[in-house]
Amino acid sequence: MRARASLENKGAFAAGAVPEMIADSWHRCLRHGLDPLGEPTDAVLSYGKLRERLEKHERLLSIVRPELELLSKQIAGTNYLTAFADREGIVLDVIMDNEFKESDCSRSINLGSIWSEEMRGTNALGLALHAGKTAMVTGGEHFFSKHGGVSCVSTPIFDSKGEIVGLLDASSEVAARQFHTQALVSLAALNIENRLFVDEHRKDIILQFHPREEYLSTQSVGMISIDQHGNLTGINRRAADILNGIETHGEKSFEQVFQNRFSAALKPLMQGDVIRLVDWLNSSYFARLRITRPHARGTISRQSVSLSVPAVFSLKASTGRLVIRDEQVADCFRLALRSAKVGAPLAVIGDAGTGKTTFAQTVHTEINPAKPLIVLDCSMIKFESDGEGLIAEVLGATEKTNFNINSGGTLVLENLAKIDTAAAEKLAHVVNRLLQSKTKSNWLIISTGTAKFVCDKDWLPTVKMSLSGLSQVSLQLPNLLERTDFSQIAQAMLDKMSEDYRLSTGAIEALKRMPYDQNLNDLDNRLKILMVQCPGGIIREEQVIRHLTQSQSKETACPKCIGNTAREAKCNEINRVFRQCNSNVALASRKLGVSRNTVYSHVTT
Predict the structure, then answer these.
(1) What are the residue ranges of helices labelled H in 121-226?
(2) pLDDT at 382 over 70
(3) What domains lie within the chain, and their CATH numbers?
(4) Has this prediction a pTM greater than 0.90?
(5) What is the mean pLDDT of the segment spanning 443-455?
(6) What are the two backbone dihedrals, phi and then psi, of residue 44, each rounded to the nearest 5 degrees?
(7) What is the pLDDT of residue 211?
């Protein structure tokens, strides 16, 4: 290259002989007094200074590292190095393959090394830092001839205020694939910026928007953060590009950017809906809310767990309100409170998983909140205990004659219909002692089961008399799909598991279409699957269908491939790998060697 030879021999070169960014950098290096044939300054931080810098940027590095590892895998096999440097060009993380480790360049790119133009001459890290945009420096374009055997690409990473927080770099001795590498580095930097944006604005409302609705789930989405008063607190680079022509810097409000009223837009967004926004240049966008997880704080407490299952155990009073928006459940609850207030035992009947024990907990909370709530599984009463022993066990006494029957409280009898003759006699003794207690603190007895309790004809008359009175007031709980408050139940259960998730209207409708043999138990299990499979935020209809119906899906090609044998075979293979990858589109696309859009277009669910 003539320009290179002229630089080395004369310290000057012809205008236009090299790209403008490179030419400007060479001129700066010459002004700094650098010699292209000399040795670059091998500037490296001391161990103590490096440790301080790593601790300072610990959170940022935790966000960068996964993308750096993914980038390394994407360009693997090309004699490569990937690195992250801070806003001063100091390398804080490096990944390189064995082949690159053997090169001379690898000995100068290490943790703590400083890659500013003043010390290292023209290089991708220093040039991207100076220019504030992606820079590619190939072979002889480096100022120092010593660096002529390597080609580098570097991209700055910006925070939500538009300031550079670091740089991502990929270097290789193979220059042929640098344009491909540049696209991968830019994408990785964009992913880091988006993750950093979400991390910085966890306490704010984060709005995702794009002119095309199908792009709302991609990394090219624009994001703005808004406080509770509707003021903009941050904007990512993509959002600034999308809103080009509208002033977004400084103290701006939502309504200074968009024509929509903030309060009116927020309500459907909080319900998980996608809405239309119009800016003041009359450009239209699709928008939805992104719900974020708050940072975990404090330490995790540890406790030992016994795997033995006792017949008697205590429950805490219900801390949350039972969802009672269904008319039948509300009527049951009203009758239960009336029965409890007059001291009448009551029976709660319902199929498996209809919430009988939770119902009993809530009644106890209303009537006896400060008193003990004890549950007795009637199918597990031990034969070796006599009546007094069972009373002692129920009331938590250490000796048969040392129990406090005067405290009052609630006794819940589970599986009463499964009790056998010997256990029934003991239970009758307990019931008589509790109901005949002549104290002001009464005991409320609630039995639960899938059918109304009927005494065995062979039982003693005294046993029948004691236990038959337990079901004089019977309340029937409806199955889950018969309830009119399904959506409120689903969201309440999800809130109890985590505050990071919400169900969209479409997701709730998709859940309603599924069978629930175990009622609330099935819903609980499905919500947990969705929490595992979906990132924090709003769970949408397509995610419910994808993650909860894959086990039921048959190997059927998508509609556009049916009828073409070759295309059907390819489509079935894509669906098979997609299911094998637990419905992870990104993982399936990498395994198959195809784009994510290809996987999306063939997934039949």
Answers:
(1) 124-131, 178-200
(2) no
(3) 2-194 (3.30.450.40), 201-290 (no CATH), 312-478 (3.40.50.300), 550-605 (1.10.10)
(4) no
(5) 84
(6) -140, 140
(7) 94
